[in-house]
Amino acid sequence: MAYLAGLPPIRLHDLRHGAASLMLAAGVEMKVVQETLGHASSAFTAATYTSVYPQVVSAAAEKTAALLFGKEGQTAPGKLISLKS
User: pTM of the full predicted structure?
Assistant: First the structure.
């Protein structure tokens, strides 16, 4: 059916990778993702089943900069802050 609709083939395992990545992008803790997938360690889950979305990298940079410059909680989601003084 997917082939007839012109969609790429997707395995259930591919959906597992996507689900793990989306959970982390949504801010779900690694331990919760690990347990959801049934892995023995969160290190294995992080190394094997996740990828980093650009939005997550930007949010991490924003949070770090806000912490460094005393503006934690003052940045709007998705809004970049300047690192220059």
Answer: 0.59
